[in-house]
Amino acid sequence: MPKAPHKQSTNEAPLLEVQHITKMYGDLAANSDVSLAISKGEIHALLGENGAGKSTLVKVIYGSLQPTLGEIYWQGEKITITNPAAARELGIGMVFQHFSLFDALTVAENIALALPGKLDLATLSDKISTVSRDYGLPLEPTAHVADLSVGERQRIEIVRCLLQEPKLLIMDEPTAVLTPQEAEQLFLTLDRLASEGCAVLYISHRLEEIKRLCHNATILRHGKVVGHVDPQKETANSLANLMVGSDIHTIGSRTANVRGEVVLAINDLSAPPDGPFGVALKDVNLDVHSGEIVAVAGVAGNGQGEFFDAISGERAGNTPQAVKINGNDVGNLGIVARRKMGAAFVPEERLGHGAVPEFSLSDNVILTRYATGDAIVASGVIDNTVANDIQIRVSDDFDVRKGVPNPEARSLSGGNLQKFVVGRELDREPVLMVINQPTWGVDAGAAALIRQALIDLAGRGAAILLISQDLDEIFETADRIAVISRGQLSDARPSGDLTLEEIGLMMAGAHEKSDDKENSEAVSA
Amino acid sequence: MEAIILTIITAATPLLLAAMGELVVERSGVLNLGVEGMMVVGAVCAFGAALGTGSIVFGILAGIAGGMLMGLLFAIMTQTFLSNQVATGLALTLLGLGVSGLIGESFVGQPGVKLGQIHIPLLSDLPVIGRIVFGQDVLVYGSFALMIATSYVLFKTRTGLIVRAVGGNHHSAHALGYNVVGVRYAAILFGGACSGLAGAYLSLAYTPQWVENMTAGRGWIALALVVFASWMPVRVMIGAYLFGTVWIMGLFVQAMGYGIPSQLLSSLPYLVTIAALVIISGNRTLTKINSPAMIGQPFVPDR
Amino acid sequence: MKIILEKRPFKSKKMALLSPLLAIGLTVFFGGIIFAMLGLNPFRALYVYFIEPVTSWWSIEELIVKAAPLILIGVGLAICFEAKVWNIGAEGQLTMGALAGSMIPIFFTGWQSPLVLVAMLVLGALGGALFGAIPAFLKTRFNANEILTSLMLVYVAQLLADWLVRGPWRDPGGFNFPKSVTFEGWQVLPTFGDGRVHIGAILAVVAALVLAFMMAKTLKGFEIRIMGNAPRAGMFSGFSPKKTIWFSMLLSGGLAGLAGICEIAGPSGHLQPSISPGYGFTAIIVAFLGRLNPIGVIFAGVMLAISYLGGEAAQIDLGVSARISQVFQGMLLFFILACDTLIIYRIRLMAGSDPKTTRKIMAEAGD
Fold first, then answer.
1. CB within 8 Å: B293 and A103
2. For chain A, which residues make up each domain, given as ranges?
């Protein structure tokens, strides 16, 4: 549906104008001479891939960061935004990608913390109910945040801003955590806000969304502006080119692999939740064959973590047969036993789970490979030279950029560390690879390298189970797709057979067992 | 019977005072294991000041000040220097025991100034409940007032909401613009004041004299109390009285001469503390929901 | 102007070595001030406290006697703390070890043979380990905080010892003094020559060397480091938090128990109500001063032994309260913790929020 052009009276100064914004971190220019202007009622996209400088620019506008150079003009006047409170007073609201919420407190208390003035929970609760319903984002003021889904939590952040009657609303990658239907609801809300005169600065790297929603777009790459465009006049391809330039590796076309035997079989896997705020797994069934990539799609918080832990062995399965590798029952075996059978695992969190931030890369090699035939450990004694040799080989093969030969893991950038963590496992030539969010928070170059490596691994006959929130990634790599929602897994269907809409419905729980489905319908009403 | 209840009250009061302070500290996300050290410094300061000036009021104020000073030391170390909270708390206790022993050397054996009980004409003379309800010393009433005030502020005011927010998620609180370190400094100083006051109670009201290490582990029991009470003020009061009862029961049974070794009875409070911890901690849901998620983690803002 | 702590990209090895020295220096400096406040000549007082203990053979012997239990317990605690298992009850485990080991001379008074010594040491270690197993069990099974449980057990152990020594285990021929029978022959630790240095010192050094090797070179050491640093990664690696807790508590409890029986069977020669002058607590400081590294603990143990001797010397020579030792030890721990900050963080001076000034400062600092 084409977007109506945005009308602006040309005599008025823009609502917000930033000129020549530069932000340095030591030698690194996170933003370099960035200028843009936003008018009242305009929905303005800020486009760029991970690491382009979008978050930095937006934090400068919101007062969380101070620019090294540059000026900011609000309604024609030059100002300094010293901190977020000052920004809010001007009428700038921001919905961050990572929410600033308090799990143990209620919705009303959370919102009260963001609003100045005397604490009056009763009046506030009424306002919350009214406003949230009006804008199509209903909230229950007395609910504890810990009990809410990710989409509902985002509503708190948005309503929090709306209650302060913002003139400019900044949204940082809002649809990353939403189902396609929830995203559409969000767009309706934003359209309405714009028609009421509120401007929106919309950060994203999703090109179809930008076309659907935005009047104007500014594109950043490596901290600099590479273009101001009208998304309606561009195609997804042209936008992508501007965003990424030509330094990206294009994924080789996938030839259909010969699908072999079942390597990983999951049978009626059920598991209790991971703590009071977790999600229980219920009767999950899935087979992954050698030579194929099976993707599990789903918005965060639907049991992916519990699912991964049950397959890796960090949590025991409900029965020994709940998880089988190459026909062997491993449900009650630990992660080391599963690795010895040729399985490899890459968890969602690289720092603190997949790798230890304060350990060197060679120590991080020992982490997953001390028992799998690399001769790192003999009679309990560690041979650090062997570990270091592996580390060097992995770094070379996977283009891991590091400052010194054997640095601490935390000194690597996100993309480089992810390349290392994935490479560490691929270097073992595993027969089964289970990976959760392969390219979350990773720059485009590294992401492409990782996805290609996984495709190549499948080509060599390995079985790959890939859990991801990124539907683009899934359609690019997967042979079959299943959807996880509230701890239940849909059937896995060939990716060619599925449309985006069907996946969206499954993410919202269309496949769940009947009694749960009634509950979920009641909640989303 | 009346005597027993009176002694239970005096045994419970220092626990209640110290635990209430530590509750606020932990609600803000900080674990201060130095309660014992702050308490004993409060005790020696209170005793010395009262002895020197002859005034109970000065004694109490000195006790509070002593506790707050120790608290300030802890705050600087853990909030500004970002030192390990467990180790720093232990250091505070060791230092407190040593310093108090040093200062208190000349006080040993000296008769102290006793905090008297109030006397309301008519009410205090009522049979049975007269002395118990209307004849306590000021600090006993103070401890109840403290509990009520803490409960109100923590759950009904913006200040309390901010404290709970900082303890629940200091990153979010910082993102919202709250001064996490400032809030924690204030909470730690409050905790120090309460512990100091508890110590003052010991050396001015419980037994008006100075004995080295007279806190005898009460600071540690206060810490256990906070966990036992799931960080809720009213439950802290219940816990304090429970422990006060156990403490006194030991002495009482001993006096009855059943031939039970005194050491066994003396060890009851500590054993009961362990049991209480086990019971409460074993209920993981209860702990996880109520415990301040940030407890013990230092706050380092991203620049 | 604000002082800001900025995380270093990697831990500073230079500061890791300097920090304990800096802490000792600061303690000495402020110690001098305290002595001055007490009305003493600070330099003379510091000499008596720190230097005199190492000037004569006799005092060096005493130093080793005091350092041995500190090192023995300290290395166990270093491992424990590295795993972030906070065993604060080493004093209680020490007491139980002393009691357990003493059962042999008390119940088998006439038995003499080299086996006696071995049995006493083994029982001592077992006693400490089993007592350390209690907090381990309570933590793994009930998630009860080990700091509080192990500490409460210290009081329980001390009261138990008090009761035993004054009651059932009191020497019947001892004129009603609260002590047990005096140990003899093989029940006493062999010493070197005529002095007081007993084999406990050897045990301490051996323990330190073995554990240093374990931490640096073995998979077990890797397990301890990773579970203390990033437990989730540790589980991903295949280790179990519960097993780590058990290992740490049994090890540190066992070493503390061993130190306990060595104290009784060595310098003391009999059981008495007060078994150690707080070695179990001082060992905590020793562990931190030694940067949780077993070799470092050897040096730290000697350092703190000096502080014990110094306290005794100060009491005799200068008339200062014995409490001064505890004050010094507390101060030392504080300074270690403060100086340790410099290993992980770097101090930076930052201007306020004016971008032009920030730019200028960054340019000048050559950033």
1. yes
2. 14-91+168-174+198-245, 96-165, 262-520
